TrEMBL record:
Pfam families: Tetraspanin. Keywords: Disulfide bond, Glycoprotein, Membrane, Transmembrane, Transmembrane helix. Disulfide bonds join C151-C174. InterPro entries: Tetraspanin/Peripherin, Tetraspanin_animals, Tetraspanin_CS, Tetraspanin_EC2_sf, TSN6/7_LEL. One of its GO terms (cellular component) is plasma membrane. Belongs to the tetraspanin (TM4SF) family. This is Tetraspanin.
Amino acid sequence: VAQRLMETKPVITFLKTLLIVYSFVFWITGAILLAVGVWGKFMIGPYISLIAENTTNAPYVLIGTGTVIIVFGLFGCFATCRGSPWMLKLYVMFLSLVFLAELVAGISGFVFRHEIKGTFLRTYTDAVLNYDAEDEKSLAVDNVQSSLRCCGVNNYTSWLGSVYYPANGFPLSCCSNSSDCSPQDLRNTTINHTKVYQQGCYELVTSFLETNMAIIAGVTFGIAFSQLIGMLLACCLSRIITANQYEMV
């Protein structure tokens, strides 16, 4: 028995070292997921808010998962140092849940990326036609137009059929040069089309969203599959420690 324990001790030490390194990397990936989730929420949040029919919770899933990973990454280091089989099994269970959560988030972002064009065309057109400069969707439209330097759906003429245009002309967010673009100019049908961006927002927004949702999905898939390494290490270490404990008994 003593010889058996001596033979497995280097293996246990090696596995502990690997698992501690992995847990530290796991903790870092938690911070990365948290950062990506927050970035996704604030960077693409205004665009997603315009798509009420098929919105995605992927940024929120990433924020929640990243926060929990940071906590359990520390737990993984503690469990490894203690060499407790039940703690290691709990760590494996947690890694499994994280793997599933990240997989769902990644698939959600990937699928949403491909569905977005048709939905966005319909909902963004509706937001423009019913624009009132005050509600959430109208503010999101202003955010999109000023950020991407565009006006209307396919071009500025999309505004001609809106409820806002007859009394107010184009919104200020369409102005191509804010220092030479007054509300009076935007109401003047003779010159207002020369004061606004000529390019529409539809192609710009869908391209922006597809690119960034692909980034979120790619990062999530990559980190999710890295959990398999941690699960394998923790399982092996737990089984070896448990076997040694039985032999000592």
